[in-house]
Specification:
Shape: globular
Number of helices: 6
Strand order of the largest sheet: 2-1-6-5-4-3
Number of domains: 1
Number of strands: 6
Order of helices and strands: HHEEHHEEEEHH
Structural class: alpha+beta
Largest sheet: 6 strands, mixed
CATH topology: Nuclear Transport Factor 2, Chain: A
Helix content: 25-40%
Length: 146
């Protein structure tokens, strides 16, 4: 009897890879045709297609954000056994400024055959810009689109 790799298993491996700064390991958990969406994104892509797109998107991530833990984490199952909703908070620091990084996330992930095929990431660009010392640039960019 084979054991099914659950979305929870894959998310656990993903967060473990992020904590270990193992970006290659994290990226290998994405399907070649993954679709990543960040509906609240500002100053970053709102959509990334494919594993190679994710590799470029996450390139240098540990040089920007030093994640040290995910102390608040809840996983919700959905009617589709391949899709879960993860609520978590990442703790760490923004490397450039040394400012604390505390970011609550809600992510909707679909996992098939042990790989993430869809990842919708809901996070606050305001909190990210504040921690990175880039809040004025974010505000300016938002005004430019008005």
């Amino acid at each position: 009897m084979t054991t099914r790799t659950t979305p929870a298993d894959v998310i656990d491996r993903f967060t473990t890879s992020l904590l270990a700064k193992d970006m290659a390991g994290a990226i290998e958990l994405f399907a070649p045709n993954v679709v990543f969406e960040a509906p609240f994104a500002a100053n970053t892509p709102a959509r990334v297609d494919g594993r190679e797109g994710m590799r470029a998107y996450l390139e240098g991530y540990p040089d920007r954000v030093d994640i040290t833990g995910f102390p608040a984490y809840v996983l919700h199952e959905t009617a589709d056994p391949d899709t879960v909703i993860a609520e978590f908070t990442a703790h760490g620091r923004t490397v450039r400024t040394g400012q604390p990084y505390v970011m609550p996330y809600i992510a909707v992930l679909t996992v098939r055959d042990g790989l993430i095929t869809s990842y919708r990431d809901y996070w606050s660009p305001v909190l990210a810009a504040k921690a990175a010392g880039e809040l004025p640039a974010l505000i300016e960019s938002l005004g430019a689109g008005a």
